[in-house]
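Re-run requested by the PI after the first attempt was lost when the workstation crashed. Everything re-entered from the original request form. Ligand of interest: magnesium ion.
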Amino acid sequence: MKRGFQAVKGTRDILPPDSALWNHVEQTAREVFRVYNFQEIRLPIFEETELFARSVGADTDIVSKEMYTFEDRDGTSVSLRPEATASVVRAYVEHGLHTRPGLTKLYYIGPMFRRERPQKGRFRQFYQIGAEVLGPSDHPALDAEIIELVMVFIERCGLRGCALYVNSIGCSQCRPKYVETLRGALQKVKSKLGPDSQRRIETNPLRVLDSKVEAEQPLIEKLPSILDHLCSACRDHYEKVKQELKDRGVPFEENWRLVRGLDYYVRTTFEVTAPGLGAQNAVCGGGRYDGLVELLGGPPTKGTGWALGTDRLILALQQATTAKPETPLDVFLVWLGQPAYARARQLARRLRDAGTSVDLTYEEAKLKKALGLADRAGARFALILGENELAQNKITLREMQSGHQRSLSEDELLKELAKPQMHTDEHR
Ligand code: ATP
Ligand code: MG
């Protein structure tokens, strides 16, 4: 026997019935984006490495350690995308979307790639659903609205008990001064910090605030807070974002330690955590990124957005409910004898054209066996086409659960099946 293959470490297959839940979540996202007037952008899976180095930041973990980078045949360095905001902004500049009137509200759905240590809720190929608003306005209502959007989406998926944390990390005016203050404070407690945090005092002190190391927590709690160092414009913006959230009835908590692992964020940052996920409990992260468009060669533009980890949202949903997603089969067609097969093929086509899901036997089987197959397929109805039915120009409709049978003409049958069925494809 030849050796078999396994999916590469950190990647996985999403099989039925789980794929039905994925579709449900993605369709819910599309529906929520539609009502908030966001339109889809479809982006390449790989880009020039330089795009990520310049936007996400060359010194971030994502770019320095986690990217799948390779040399293309012409020598260009390209990378599988670790996130999609860089690509959205690249596309925005490349296609001159800023010349279109009003704000550009976009969403994307698709896989991202980061070479991290695989664990529960952490994969090397994972999936994100994301939203971005680009344009001339940095109104706090935009930050609040995209936050409201993601909370509505999560709720419509049926997940309860998520928490929203918000923060402001200032701007190029006030943050550098704060970072120096923070660095000074960190230097004083350096010997008590672990190796990662010690290193970050030099490279990126803000990231120390993000540390999950238990022993460091009491020290970090006593560090100076960015909220005491915001310039008046940033403070005003932050206050208005919070007020907007209150006015919209979106519950949140403030967390001054919430910084993000990407360099391009300014002012608003936020994160949503979900229950039941253990250490990897962040399902969504986002914030404002004014200036990123300029950094990638475009005109002065404001931006705000988020990315939600679909894998984690789905894990949380699966944890919260035992109900299996279902894609019920409407009809299993049973035919007896070759003349019936010719009719069955036509009938299957007609039903499918009318939107009814149909499966059927491909080889002739006895009635009892065929009904067993219909049962195993989870069909709501079996349709039986035998010699008698052919002779009378009728079809037998059998309700699988009750065993109740009726004899109908083809037109009656189509009408019967067109009635809305009670599907159980809710995941609550
Ligand atoms: P974390 O702190 O959990 O590593 P992050 O800050 O790196 O998250 P972002 O870059 O903000 O995450 O991405 C947004 C969301 O994408 C995260 O909140 C998470 O739900 C999801 N995500 C990020 N990395 C992974 C991964 N390797 N596997 C699965 N989901 C991920
Ligand atoms: Mg990460």
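Saved to the shared folder this time. Residues 422-428 have pLDDT under 50 and may be disordered.
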